[in-house]
Structures are given as structure tokens and as C-alpha cells.
Specification:
136 residues; alpha+beta; globular; binds tetrahydrodeoxyuridine
Amino acid sequence: MNNKELVKAAFDAMQKAYAPYSSYKVGAALLGKSGKVYSGCNVENAAYGPTNCAERTAFFKAVSEGEREFSKIAVVGGKDGVVTDMFMPCGVCRQVMAEFCDSDFEIIVARSEDDFTVFPLSELLPFGFSKNNITD
Ligand code: THU
């Protein structure tokens, strides 16, 4: 699965977004090391706090299906599903990525299928806290 194909899968996932409160529709496509792709969209809630981001939806789907190793994720989003700029993953989603991914995990943020930027996780979450920081 190349980056362009993963971005296309993220655009497809964005169509499923449930965002009646913010109107920001977000889609993610996460590539597991098995080769399987897990899609995710944001799922909002009237109480706001229970809202789940697209990236975490994809991660939690994957982990709940037994996948724990990942190589890259594509993310797209925009108001009413209109993508005009890169949609950067929030801090909570970056922390979830750090739980399961190495520092070279690739985060692909796209404006279109042909216009995207790739960041390593180490650049988006420098000096992060992870299981490596916990000792008995
Ligand atoms: N959102 C995501 O899906 N991913 C992020 O990384 C940041 C924010 C969603 C949450 C909410 O439904 C909407 O975007 C506006 O914050």
C-alpha cells in the first residue's frame, strides 16, 4: 500500500465521520505491519467529552482485532468534509500512536491524494512519554 492509496482510504473514511457538533469531518487510514488497513473517522457526542478522534478510532479498531504493530497512518479532515489544509493529529492521538509505534512511524497529512507531507512520529511527539519511561 503506497502513500497515495492510504491517503485515498483516509478520504473514504472521512465520509463516515459523525460530526454534528463541530462539522469538522476527519478520516484516517492506518496500515498495520500485517498489511491490513484499518479505517477510522471521528465520532462526536452530545456530551462533547466522549468524542473520539479519527486516528484513535483506527488504532482502537486495529488493536481490538489483534494488530499491534504499525507502519504508517494517513489523516485528512476539514470543515464539512472540505479539505483545504493539512489536518494535524491532536496530542491525545499522538500519545496513542506512541503506545504502539516506533519513532519512525510515518504520519501522512494530506491536502489531496497528490499533495501530502510525511512526518515521523519523533517529529510530532518529541521527548514523549511511553512505556519505556516506566520502570518497576
Ligand atoms: N479530531 C480528530 O478526529 N482528530 C484529531 O486529531 C483532532 C480532532 C476531531 C475531533 C472533533 O470531532 C473534531 O475533529 C473537531 O475537533
